[in-house]
Amino acid sequence: MTRFSVTYRIFAPELAEAKVRAEAIALEQTVEIPRDVVPAGFIEDEILGRVEEIGSDGDGQFRATLSYSPHSAGFEIAQFFNVIFGNSSIQRGLRVVGIEPGEEMARRHPGPRFGIDGVRALCGRPAGGLIAPVLKPQGLDADDLARIGYLCARGGADIVKEDHGLMDQPMAPFRERVEKTAAAVTRANAETGGRALYFPTLAGQPDQLEGNIRFARDAGADGLLVLPGLLGFGTVSRIARDRELNMPVMTHPSFLGPYVLSPDTGFDHGVMFGTLQRIAGADISVFPNVGGRFGFSHAECAGIAHACRDGAGPGRPMLPSPGGGMSVDRAADMAAMYGDDVVYLLGGSLLRLGERIGEGIAAMRAALDAVRAAEA
Amino acid sequence: MTRFSVTYRIFAPELAEAKVRAEAIALEQTVEIPRDVVPAGFIEDEILGRVEEIGSDGDGQFRATLSYSPHSAGFEIAQFFNVIFGNSSIQRGLRVVGIEPGEEMARRHPGPRFGIDGVRALCGRPAGGLIAPVLKPQGLDADDLARIGYLCARGGADIVKEDHGLMDQPMAPFRERVEKTAAAVTRANAETGGRALYFPTLAGQPDQLEGNIRFARDAGADGLLVLPGLLGFGTVSRIARDRELNMPVMTHPSFLGPYVLSPDTGFDHGVMFGTLQRIAGADISVFPNVGGRFGFSHAECAGIAHACRDGAGPGRPMLPSPGGGMSVDRAADMAAMYGDDVVYLLGGSLLRLGERIGEGIAAMRAALDAVRAAEA
Q1: CA angle in degrees (0–180, nearest 5) for B114-B233-B52
Q2: Which of A276, B51, B103, B303 counts the most CB atoms within 10 A of its CB?
Q3: Which stretches make up the Ribulose bisphosphate carboxylase large subunit C-terminal domain (chains A, B) (predicted)?
């Protein structure tokens, strides 16, 4: 059975110490017992992690690739990620910089159901950047949010996305909100002949999620926004793997910041907001854009976009979705940076337009079209 | 309605900048729109976060306490934590150092169902440290794991806990393993007259968790080990809040390391492994012990233990459970450090004893009793 591999950056003064630490990771992530107690046979030969390669990666840094057995990772995303970086996430000076699922884990976790082409087909936008205005603020009632959704769909949105802070609060309870907004977007589409999609934020206690997923689908939601940092990456996978449900998933980075912010722990930006999201099955991955309210650099954002769209996998290419401080003024720069296969989140500044919010979306569309025309 | 409050450590060169950042957090964590777009009335007065207090906290550091509305946090743990640190977790130079739920959120999330006294009552250990050997390694079959569970219960374990890496792998599928181990521990208890508890690791895809929780209860498991870093803190709460289920929860730190490892992001150790676990409803919180394989300091571990047991809440005091490198040799030091209300995890080194594993547990009990006798 093909093993999967994880590449770690180990911070250590010299190779000998990095090797010792790599062998310790091999134990920690699998059997979690001292080396001399590991039973011979199947456990030692198959289950125990294996250091496949280790070498220098710059001053005081080493790259170690370890392989693990699919038997160890089982069939759940939670256990797959548990083997990748469960306990070792608590070690200082250790960062995941690459994941190669291999044939067997790729079969168990085939990734995005829709991917770039699938999402484009759903919203009828075969080329050019996709525009996703965000319904907010928290505190509005369901009618007001649905009204904004209607105006956004009328204005030419590709995806009407809810703010990640809209969950199941009393001001706009999940089911009421989803029902009203789905109806509003459907009405707008009927009027324009367009195909704007509606992605509510999946809410609910764990034992309500199943019911809420089905409710959203039946009410006419086209996809779901999921917060893997709070609901777990397994929730993304549960939706992506459901053929009958057949809904695309957009993931949001809430609560995930500490995984990327320090260079010597967590995951590289592209692994967290690209690779892991793809393995879990997200079709669109939201992340904080360079130049917005968060401090991600140009290189980090480019790395995320690459990891989302890399033709080599894992699974189908997915859409990167930079958010935070996006505006018409930046459209040309953003199109130059991200190219065509991207979902632009348009946030709170659009609300300044009030009932004319659709004009803001139309302006963004015109700006993106101008970039494409100039390139052609 | 009583607002809840979160205290952040802000890294900034001067107070004026820290104040600007605190006001930005108030927006980011609630309405997530520019200040000038916040609608007057209910949203501005109630939903918008409020900077209640801000002051210096040492060189280049400031403490800011913000209050939020329970209307904003709703009724789910996910959304409560989303307001506490969702998007702001992606800001550099910002760390959560305290959470005060206040009356209303304490009512919605009353914390541990059992707490220290409840767990002690269940396992019939009114005083002294509790001993929890861990069933492993991954790769053994269900019969072998059940056999170790039997020997541990015979040897005087208070809690027979499964390794966090035992999920639903083919070598020892969750249901088979739980059934056999629960029966083995029950048999040992019948033979000794003891009351060792059995905590399997909750496994399954999100849509299997409900069934697996009930299966474990019906098969005779006494509590559940839950990995909130992978399954979400809501899963802890879902179990803790189920009066009919009535099972204690032990939480494990897998995948949570990056939240604490860097001093300028994430959560203080006590908040992550104490406060948040308590709010979610854990009765026992596992964390990496000082002097083990992980780099937590004495002060960090003491801070965690304090946050777990603080009589001021939130909710009932819970049991800290240091793990990693625990042994009989360290029993006296550990008892001096942690006192009585603690669960000692005994891991892989016990396996060296093979069929005599119970002797290792008895030796740990004798060492802890000796400390108590010396103190009395």
Answers
A1: 95
A2: A276
A3: 123-372
C-beta atoms surrounding B41 within 10 Å:
10
- The matching CATH number, chosen from 3.90.1720.10, 3.90.79.10, 3.20.20.110, 3.30.420.10, for B115-375 is 3.20.20.110
CB count in 10 Å sphere of residue B299: 10
Q: What is the pLDDT of residue A324?
A: 80
The answer to whether A51 faces chain B, any CB pair under 8 Å, is no
Q: pLDDT category, B109, cuts 50, 70, 90? A: very high
d(CA A325, CA B216): 48
| Residue A169 forms contact with B (CB below 8 Å) | yes
**Can you give the C-alpha Rg of chain A in angstroms?**
22
Which of the four pLDDT bands, split at 50, 70 and 90, describes residue A43?
Answer: very high
pLDDT of residue B328: 86
Predicted confidence at residue B27, as pLDDT, reads: 97
Are B235 and A238 inside 8 Å of each other by CB? no
> Taking residues A278-299, what's their average pLDDT?
93
Task: Among A165, A205, A235, select the one facing B30 at the smallest CB separation.
Answer: A165
pLDDT in tens, A104-128: 999 999 999 999 999 999 999 999 9
Residues 6+ apart with CB under 8 A from A91: A21, A25, A28, B257, B293, B294, B295
Here the ipTM equals 0.97
The domain segmentation of chain B, as residue ranges, is: 4-108, 115-375
For residue A294, the chain B residue with the least C-alpha distance is B91
Distance from CA of B205 to the nearest CA of A (A): 6
pLDDT, tens digit, 9 for 90 and up, residues A59-102: 999 999 999 999 999 999 999 999 999 999 999 999 999 999 99
The CATH topology of domain A4-108 is Alpha-Beta Plaits (3.30.70)
Is B110 near chain A, with CB under 8 Å?
no
CA A24 to chain CA centroid, nearest Å:
30
Query: What confidence tens digit (pLDDT) does each residue in A212-241 have?
Result: 999 999 999 999 999 999 999 999 999 999
How many beta-carbon pairs below 8 A join chains A and B?
A: 303
Q: How far apart (Å, rounded) are the C-alpha atoms in residues B300 and B252? A: 17
**What residues of chain B lie within 8 A of the CB of A86, using their CB?**
164-165, 227, 229-230, 254-255
Question: Which tokens hold the place of B348?
Answer: 């892989």
Q: Is the Cα torsion angle A96, A99, A104, A107 positive or negative in sign?
A: positive
